[in-house]
């Protein structure tokens, strides 16, 4: 199942939720030059999920939901431009676990 929130896409597979940049946010940002993605561990909704510097702007991306970051896109540290990729296997930020079902249900499909 897939949902969107705050210009991020969220895809749920079993007990994990992958979070990435929507094409709309990619367009708004322009070419990504630097990304600082949150480290593994707990994160609360509205906490900073990533800081992104791009050709058009510099933004903080806030977590759309609370959970535990169990995987982060380490490749974006070395090559932040992969966050501009159309391929969602490349442009994701983090994978979350321990997300409350009620939080997930409140997101827009």
From TrEMBL:
GO process terms (BP): glycine decarboxylation via glycine cleavage system; protein lipoylation
Domain Lipoyl-binding: 16-97
SUPFAM superfamilies tied to this protein: Single hybrid motif
Domain of life: Bacteria
One Gene Ontology CC term in the entry: cytosol
Keywords: Lipoyl
Protein name: Glycine cleavage system protein H
Species this chain originates from: Tetragenococcus halophilus (Pediococcus halophilus)
């Amino acid at each position: 199942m897939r949902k969107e929130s705050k210009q991020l896409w969220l895809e749920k597979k079993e007990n994990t939720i992958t979070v990435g940049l929507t094409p709309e946010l990619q367009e708004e940002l322009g070419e990504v030059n630097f990304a600082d993605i949150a480290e593994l561990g707990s994160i609360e909704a509205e906490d900073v999920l990533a800081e992104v510097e791009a050709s058009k702007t510099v933004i903080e991306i806030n977590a759309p939901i609370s959970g535990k970051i169990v995987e982060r896109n380490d490749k974006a540290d070395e090559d932040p431009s992969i966050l501009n990729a159309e391929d969602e296997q490349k442009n994701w930020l983090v994978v979350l676990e321990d997300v409350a079902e009620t939080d997930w249900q409140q997101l827009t499909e």
